[in-house]
Amino acid sequence: MNKCKLCEHNEANQTGSHIIPHFLIKSMVNEGGSKKRDKEVSFGINSIDADVFFGRSVTIDKIEETMGKPLTDDEIEGQSNHFTIDNMLCDSCEKKLAIVESYYSLNSENGKVDAKVSTIFWYSILWRISASKCSGLTMKNKDEKKIRKLLNSTLTLNIKTVKENSISNTSLFDSIAYKLLKVEELDEEDGLLFMAHPTLFTPYSLIINNFTIFFYTRLSYLKNISQNFFGFEKLYTKNSPVISESMFEECHIVDRQVFFKCVKKFADFKVKDFGDKLKIFINSTFRNLTGKNASPQLVQNSIHEIIYGESTMGERYGQIRMHRIIAKHIILEQQINFR
Ligand SMILES: [Zn+2]
User: Fold this and answer.
1) Cβ distance 13 to 96 under 8 Å?
2) Ligand 1 mean position to 185 CA, how many Å?
3) pLDDT at 75
């Protein structure tokens, strides 16, 4: 068995690890409540590079243009494992992460989250997203190492010692910061969101439901306002507090409409980018296997099954799985043609 990617010591025996803490996504991947389920769409990309989860209402035209047909109930059900991964962590690291998560989940509502613990919390999510290689967002090696060190030096099974460790290892926090933006009310109609930008790193940028988080792995990046990010850059340079030296986490409230304008631009970009890359992959696989061009129908059917068929997050966009699906659709198409 592989070693745990966090402690790099124990065996990675933990299954079903949440890459994004369950309390942040429980409303995204809804259990029960079928009413708003068809508002949600999620897909991730590993070998092709992108990851996105958003409400259909955000960008429904682009999605239907790419995916062709709406999801069945079973396909929506299959999305619930989208944010979990097997054998990346050991059970001990998993438990330590859970301590910080439950602290954050309990205290963030009343706005009294210790800023060092909140830094550990949000960076642990960025680290997991990067280390899992399940989305397009991968931190630079040096940054990933730095965050791993931060986590390993502070996480324990007791929140009091986590706080003590973060005080005695205060230098680990010197060169990192983040900004947290929040939209106060998300309507059910808005759908729910997860987006990670695949290529930006000054800052790394994540959207998880109503939170937008910008991660700065060098304080000099805080002065960098030129990075174009679908209009979000205008939100995060304006008045949003920097969490590095404050006592408690501070959150900048963002106007809903302005936020959704940016989200829509981001989502359209991601869907188009994602669809283009999948089509290229399917077409070239088809040509390698048959020497001919794939029919639009075969491309559409393959895309649909790749994105929504049953699979774990880690395997969904693996080459083996994608090749198997494409081969299956080639056989199906030939059976139809022979009839
Ligand atoms: Zn471990």
Assistant:
1) no
2) 37
3) 54
User: Residue 137 C-alpha to ligand 1 middle, in angstroms?
Assistant: 22
Token pair of 130 as six digits: 């990067």
Percent of the chain with pLDDT over 90: 30
DSSP 177-227: EEEEEEES---GGG---EEE-SS--TTEEEEETTEEEEEESSGGGGG----
Given a cut of 70, whether residue 267 has pLDDT beyond it is: yes
Domain boundaries, the chain: 17-262, 270-338
**φ, ψ for residue 309 (rounded to 5)?**
-70, 165
Residues 6+ apart with CB under 8 A from 278: 45, 48, 303, 306
Average pLDDT of span 59-78:
55
pTM summary value: 0.77
From CA 198, how far away is CA 47, in angstroms rounded?
Answer: 12
Q: Tell how far the Cα of 99 is from the centroid of ligand 1, in angstroms.
A: 14
Confidence of residue 56 (pLDDT cuts 50, 70, 90): very low
Q: What is the pLDDT of residue 110?
A: 81
